[in-house]
C-alpha cells in the first residue's frame, strides 16, 4: 500500500510512504528553502538554506516515525558545485557518518526559483516495530 502525505496545493506530496511489510519506505520529494508562507529562507546564504532543508527532512522523518539513521539515499542538487565542501560539513551533522547513505550530487545552473541554492531528495527505510 502507498500513502501520500502532506499533499500541497502545488499538486505533489512532500513525501510518500510505501508499506514493505515489516518496514516502510519513505520517499521525500525535493526539499528547498521555502517556508510555509512561500518565502525563501536564507536568500544568498547556502548554509542557512542547507540547515533549513535538513531540518525539514528531519521533521518529515520524525512524523513518519524515523530519524536520519533511517536514510538510505540522498540526491543533492547544488547550483554552485563549489559549495560541495560546505554541504558535506552540514550534511554530516545530520546523517550517520559511520554508515552513510548512498548519495548523488549534481551541479546545475538554477532550481525552480533563482534564489534557491540547493535541493535535496531523500529516501528512508523505517522498521515498523
From TrEMBL:
<protein>
    <submittedName>
        <fullName>Endoribonuclease L-PSP</fullName>
    </submittedName>
</protein>
<comment type="similarity">
    <text>Belongs to the RutC family.</text>
</comment>
<dbReference type="GO" id="GO:0019239">
    <property type="term" value="F:deaminase activity"/>
</dbReference>
<dbReference type="Pfam" id="PF01042">
    <property type="entry name" value="Ribonuc_L-PSP"/>
</dbReference>
<dbReference type="InterPro" id="IPR035959">
    <property type="entry name" value="RutC-like_sf"/>
</dbReference>
<dbReference type="GO" id="GO:0005829">
    <property type="term" value="C:cytosol"/>
</dbReference>
<dbReference type="InterPro" id="IPR006175">
    <property type="entry name" value="YjgF/YER057c/UK114"/>
</dbReference>
